[in-house]
Specification:
4 helices; about 90 residues; mainly alpha; binds iron/sulfur cluster; globular
Length: about 90
């Protein structure tokens, strides 16, 4: 159910790159696997998506906490955000 809420959020906040999102042609549920479930199907779709970089950037900037975005899981995005913060702190 939480996944469906996130999908609704996506639809209510369209951004330009989403018009080319490959996931629009896939089952939305695969992008919100249950805890411990496989994200392989979603990642396969993302791997062929031409707006993957934009999607990942959007998810990082908006702190998307649920689902597969830009081919990354929640845990991977948290790690990416931490790495960015660390890098920023090291140059300032
Ligand atoms: S990278 Fe994945 S989640 Fe993002 S728009 Fe493309 S298919 Fe959808």
């Amino acid at each position: 159910m939480q996944g469906m809420q996130r999908i609704t959020t996506r639809l209510l906040q369209p951004v330009e790159w989403q018009g080319a999102a490959r996931c629009a042609e896939a089952e939305p549920e695969i992008f919100f696997p249950e805890r411990g479930g496989s994200s392989k199907a979603a990642r396969a779709v993302c791997s062929k998506c031409q707006v993957r970089a934009e999607c990942l950037e959007y998810a990082l900037n908006n702190k998307e906490q649920f689902g597969i975005w830009g081919g990354t899981s929640e845990r991977e995005r948290r790690r990416l955000r931490r790495e960015r913060v660390r890098r920023l702190r090291s140059v300032s």
